[in-house]
Amino acid sequence: QRPKPLDLSICPSSRVPAMGVAGLKLASWFLCTVMVDAFKLLDVGPPRTGTQTMHDAMKILGLKPLHTGYELSVRHALCGYLFGNGSLDDALAVFDGYDAAMDEPVMLMYEEIMAAFPEAKFLLTISDAESWFTNYVELAHLNDASWNSSEHKFWESFPANCTAMQSWGCKFLHPRSAEDKDTCLKNYDRHIKRVQDVIPPERLLVYNWSDGWSPLSHFLGSRIPEEQFPHEDIAKFYSEKKVAAKLGMSLGS
C-alpha cells in the first residue's frame, strides 16, 4: 500500500510543459528534464537486504549512489513527502547529483522514480521474510545496547514512519506481539510482490547475491569489474564494536 496517491502527471512522457497538464509546476518540469538522464538505478529492497553492500557495488561500477542510512539528512524531504505534507519537488531534488539510491524510505518511491526518470532501472534483492525480520531484530538490539543518549535522541528526531520500517508496522524491539510481527512480515511480502507487479520486467532485476557481478553488470550495461564483489555491514560492525567496548569497560571497572 502506498502512503499517499501518486500524481503521474509530474513528468509527462513528452517532458515538455503543456497547457492543461494539471499540477505540473515549472520546478517539476525542470527536475524532469534536467535530471531525467542522470538517475540510473533504485534499489527497492528494504533495509537489511544488502543495501550497504549494494552501495559499495554501485561505487565499484562507477555510479554515485545515495544510501539514506549514510546520508540521513535527506530523509526529512523524503519522509515529508511520503508521510506528511512535503512536496514531491523537494523529494525528487534529493536525487540531484546521484545516479543510484537505496535504503529507507527511498525504496518506497519506485513509482515516482519511474515517472520522473523514464530511463531508470530497478533492483530487487529478495531475502526470506523471516530471515529478514530476525536480522533486523538482531541489529535493533545491538543498536539499543550500543547507542548513547544523544544517539537515541538523534534517531527519535525523525518522524516515526521514517526509521526501522515503522511505516510497515514493524517493531524490532520488545515489547512486541505476534500480531506486530505478522503485520510487519505481511507488509514486507506485500512490498516485494507489488514492486514486481508495478515495475515493468525489462526495468527490474530480481537479484540473487550468489550471482555476483555478471547479471548486475549486464543489467546496467557496465563492464564486469575485476574487484571481488563486496560485502558490507557497517551498521552491525560498529554497533558490535561499541557493545564490546562497553562490555570491556564494565568488566574492567
Structure description:
The protein is an alpha/beta fold. The chain is 46% helix and 7% strand. It is built from 10 helices and 5 strands, in the order αβαβααβαβαααβαα. A 5-stranded parallel β-sheet has the order 2-3-1-4-5, sandwiched between helices. Helix 6 packs across helix 10.
In short:
It is built from 10 helices and 5 strands, in the order H-E-H-E-H-H-E-H-E-H-H-H-E-H-H. The C terminus is likely disordered.
Lay out the secondary structure.
Blueprint: H1 26-35, E1 41-43, H2 51-60, E2 65-67, H3 75-83, H4 88-93, E3 100-102, H5 110-116, E4 121-125, H6 129-146, H7 149-156, H8 178-198, E5 204-207, H9 213-220, H10 234-252
Parallel strand pairs: 1-3, 1-4, 2-3, 4-5
Helix pairs in contact: 6-10
